[in-house]
Every structure is written in C-alpha cells, then in structure tokens.
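Look at a sample.

——
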Amino acid sequence: MNLSYRSERLRDTVEEIKPLVVLHWQDVSDGSEGEPDPAYDTMAKLEEQGIFKLFTARDAGGRLVGYVAWIIAPHMHYRGLTVAHDDAFFLHRDYRRGGEGIRFFQFCEQELRAIGVKRLVVHEKLSFPLGAFFERLGFRNVERNWFKDLS
C-alpha cells in the first residue's frame, strides 16, 4: 500500500478531511450525537497555539486517506507531564491491512516524542473495539469513560 505519513496544518487539509469525517462517523457513531459538525475554527485556533496537532496518511497518489488529531497539553495534575490525547483517528477501510494503522500510530508517537510529549492517551468506542490494536502498540488499558446526556 505504501502510505506516507506527515504532520500537516488543518487549514491546509480541511477540505480533504471533510469527506473522511463522514466515513469515520459512519464507521463508529451510534447516531446519538447527530451528524458530525466539527469545530474546525476552534481546532485551527488551538493549532496556532500548539495545542492541536494533525498527522495525515496519504496514498502513493497523494490522496488523503487517514488522519490522527491530538490535543497536547501539560497534565492538569502533573505539570511536568506533557500528554497528547487523541481527538480523532481514522484510516480509510481500504488501507486497514498490512500494518498501515500500526505504522501510522508509530509515526505519530515518534513525532510527538520529538516535541516533548511524554504520554499518549487514546480512546475506543465500545461498538468499534481496538484493544488488540492498542496493546500491540504498547498501550495499557487504565480507564473507562461514561457518558450521560443532559438534554
């Protein structure tokens, strides 16, 4: 498959990302939040501050086929610990074999380590389990998230 991985600016890729966001939503959403409506303007402002970081996967023709977006900040309880929390990650289903997802996350890890990140925190949907994938990358399961809608 031979994908290339890059650090790119959201403002330069947002139009390419939009169709992938819809595919991502179709893969993992239970529909409870409605259709996707990302706050791209907020992400771009956070990117300017060094808080939001976007990595992309492109095929041999340069077509965007995946993204991993991270929120980077000092840990609120351990200021010396810089943490990158995944905001969203997606790899087009046509590229989810041959280890491309593993290589993509390893690229992210290398790039984030280079800018001082000490811990990665990722999430998975219960309806789209990725535990084996994350364990293969060396992650450990330490928390569970619970939602309650107040509408």
In short: The mean pLDDT is 92. The chain has one domain: 4-136.
